[in-house]
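Fold this sequence, please.
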Amino acid sequence: MDKQGIYTALGVAFSLMIALCGWILTNTLLDRQEAMLLVATGNIHVPSVLEATAGTGKEANSSSNPNVVKLKEETMAKILANWNTPGGNVRPHEPVEGQLNMEQALTAAKAGLLYFSTHGIISLELLEDEFTRTNASLWENRPAMKGNQPDRWVRISTELPPEYSYWAITFDNEEISIRLTLNAVTGAIWRADVFSYQAGTILTELDVVEMIEIYAAYLGLNGGDSLTFIVNETCAIKGFAGNIIGVTAVKSEKGAGDPKSYSGISLYLSESGPPARGEDIAVEIKD
């Protein structure tokens, strides 16, 4: 190879090296800018509920209960009693076998919201906008030790069944704030609080009784027992399974002329009968 050929080959190699270095440098700078932007804003892009559930087929629009795993009403009552027990050690933890991971929990939450919207509990238009802030964390409530006799202690086992944990999930944007509590095994929404601080926003045209019936169907609860109205029919509670658990629906609002105007709805399960509180999960006797 003559000198001209050598110089040509070296020139091509040098040009390729410059191009490669420029590409690496450009991508490095872009990555740094992206990281700085995330630190500055603290916001995570989360698709709208309608986008996130698109393509799920008939499951998203089915009128039947979307949850696959079922729990007996007696078990649900015991779990609710555990969640509401004061003085326990409420702590976050990583998912264990049988529990949903974060991605699965978020998917279940969005599917539940879409179910509510297609049945009129939440306006579809409010779920079309992207959520700019989201958070998800897994929790459990380990009951505190309690005295049984003067010289003995009874301690509830610290190893709770997986279905006793719950995912706390929040979705927010400029128009709406959503707070959800999901059972960590079934993925069902056991509490939903939805608020809008935009004047004149109507979250639902349904009354609280209609909301209860839709929510109970979502949870797979059939029939029902007593129905109680509270505060001018803005709140209703219906008992199920012999009134050992209750389903509550609440509508609240403050007028548009008020500087702190808002509208909101709440749906939640509650444990209301004595059987769930009369039994422990597991006990260990210490002398």
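DSSP finds seven helices and twelve strands in the chain. The helical segments are 3-41, 49-52, 58-61, 73-83, 102-118, 208-219, 274-277.
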